[in-house]
Amino acid sequence: MQLSLDPRRADRERHYKPPPPTSAPAEDLTTDYMNILGMVFSMCGLMMRLKWCAWAAVFCSSVSFANSRITDDTKQIISSFMLSVSAVVMSYLQNPAPMSPPWASLIS
């Protein structure tokens, strides 16, 4: 009788086979949605001189930039971010007073 110190059983070995792909993973469109929202908010901030829209555009553009992948179009994301920053700058150049909340005009 042969004394073996190896507890593995060679006859029970099975090599790993990855499972077949069922479907492609769903594409996350957060980047695209936030990019579009950033552009819309920055245009509203520029055209209507609404500071809160300009700040919302900066937020949306930042989220879009943070969630972007290396394969995404960086020119569009950077231009959206620069447009939102310019909306904030232009809104404060036109009216340097602190931002009032949108509902403040409804109260008074």
Key traits:
about 110 residues; mainly alpha
Q: Give a short account of the largest sheet.
A: none
Overall pLDDT: 86
Point out poorly predicted stretches: none
State the separation between the terminal residues, measured CA to CA.
Answer: 98 Å
Our count of helices gives 4
Helical content class? 55-70%
Global structural class: mainly alpha
Instruction: Note the run of SSEs as H and E.
Output: HHHH
Radius of gyration: 27 Å
Gross morphology: rod-shaped
**How many DSSP E strands?**
0
**Beta-strand level of the residues, as a percent range?**
under 5%
Pfam families: ASTER
InterPro entries: ASTER
Organism: Pieris macdunnoughi
Keywords: Membrane, Transmembrane, Transmembrane helix
Describe the structure.
By secondary structure, this protein is mostly helical. The chain has a domain at 53-93. The chain is built from 4 helices and no strands. α1 (30-48) packs antiparallel against α2 (51-66). The longest helix has 21 residues, at 74-94.
